[in-house]
Amino acid sequence: MHMHHSSTKEKPKMDPNATLIKLDLFHKNADGSWSSIKNADIRNAFGTYRIKPGMTFKKNHSYWGIDVVSLLENAEIVDSRSYPLFDRRDRNKSRD
Predict the structure, then answer these.
(1) In this structure, is residue 3 part of a structural domain?
(2) Where does the source fall among the domains of life (predicted)?
(3) Which of 57, 68, 71 is nearest to 29 (CA)?
(4) Residue 75 is part of which domain span?
C-alpha cells in the first residue's frame, strides 16, 4: 500500500478555504459579538476586506460571505492552544 504525504518544504499557497484574521485587532463583547479596535484586514482567496475601528460583528451573520464571529472564535481557540507550543524559553534556560 502506498501512502502519500504532502511535503512540508513546499511554500504554502493561500488555501482557497482559509480566511486570515488577526484576533488581537478585535474585542469580544459581553453579548457575544465582536468589535474591531483598530484597522483590520480579513484576507481570503477572493481578496482583502478592510475593517475600520468600531465595526461590530454579530453571531450567525455573514459579512462578504464570511462568518466573522465564527472566524474570531476559532482563532481564539487556536491561539489559546498555540501559544504555549511556541514558547520554548523554558527548555533553553541560560546556565548563569
Answers:
(1) no
(2) Bacteria
(3) 57
(4) 23-80
